[in-house]
UniProtKB/TrEMBL annotation:
Recorded family membership: Belongs to the AHA1 family.
Protein name: Activator of Hsp90 ATPase homologue 1/2-like C-terminal domain-containing protein
Pfam families hit by this protein: AHSA1
SUPFAM superfamilies referenced in this protein's UniProt entry, alphabetically: Bet v1-like (SSF55961)
Residues in Activator of Hsp90 ATPase homologue 1/2-like C-terminal domain copies: 15-147
Classification via InterPro entries: ASHA1/2-like_C, START-like_dom_sf
Transmembrane annotation, as ranges: none
Length: 147
């Protein structure tokens, strides 16, 4: 029997120009400041942001638990679109080895802000979608603080 897929969609408006939000997604030093939920920090963030290139990352909780994930950049269209796969390498934060597809769309608003539409497709349950919504939302709260 085929497993149903669930898609997560999060929209945010950032009080920053699109180029600044793009840089926060693509500059390793900035990304390490925000690309983890609260009570987590980024320990590893390796990979070149270019279509066809792989990346590896690791978050660590305040309790010392590691959450490793990896993927591949599929599309990079500066400064408006970033598409990458996301696969948990351990089961701390999700079902291991299930590949999802993340898309980040950045749109300029008339008042100089940036509307971000984030989509994660291929989640395997409503619970996984709910859990990822919580984690990504906490990441995007931190993103707002750095842009």
């Amino acid at each position: 029997m085929e497993q149903a897929e669930f898609t997560l969609v999060i929209e945010r408006v950032f009080d920053a120009p699109r180029e600044q939000v793009w840089k926060a997604w693509t500059d390793r030093d900035i990304r390490m400041q925000w690309l983890s939920p609260k009570d987590f920090s980024v320990r590893q963030d390796d990979g070149r942001i270019c279509a066809g290139h792989e990346y590896k990352a690791c978050m660590i909780s305040s309790a010392g638990k590691e959450s490793r994930y990896a993927g591949e950049y599929r599309e990079v269209k500066e400064p408006e679109k970033l598409v990458f796969t996301h696969t948990w390498q351990n089961d701390t934060c999700g079902v291991p080895y299930i590949e999802t597809l993340c898309t980040v769309l950045l749109e300029e608003t008339v008042d100089g802000k940036t509307k971000m539409i984030f989509t994660q497709a291929g989640l395997r349950s409503a619970d996984a979608r709910r859990s990822h919504n919580g984690g990504w939302s906490e990441c995007f709260d931190k993103l707002q603080a750095v842009v």
